[in-house]
Design goal:
- Helix content is about 15%, strand content about 25%.
- It is α+β, with helices and mostly antiparallel strands and about 90 residues long.
- Strands 1-6 form a two-stranded parallel ribbon. Strands 2-5 form a two-stranded antiparallel ribbon.
- A hairpin with a 2-residue loop joins strand 3 and strand 4.
Length: about 90
């Protein structure tokens, strides 16, 4: 007999980053801190048994994802003065 736990199907979960389907207008996203991870998104990690691990539920959207189909408002001075703008 096999015991099925909630953890068994964890790898098959769906991670919806952003959904703008129910909005009647285009999304308008203003990003005050335009760092690389805030614009593009990031993958977070969890410590397990002394090692950092990740899975698809730890993928977090950035401002570009949230503004998909709409408008992204950025302060150009903050983007160009950010030390991480050259890495992108």
């Amino acid at each position: 007999m096999t015991i099925v736990t909630r953890q068994t199907f964890h790898r098959y979960h769906v991670n919806v980053l952003v959904t703008n389907g129910r909005k009647s207008a285009a999304p308008i996203v203003s990003e005050d801190s335009p760092t690389y991870s805030n614009l593009i998104g990031r993958v977070e990690h969890v410590a397990q048994f002394g090692a950092l691990v990740t899975d698809l539920t730890l993928i977090k959207p950035g401002a570009l994802h949230r503004a998909n189909g709409g408008y992204l408002l950025l302060d150009v001075r903050k983007v160009l003065c950010s030390p991480s703008h050259g890495k992108a």
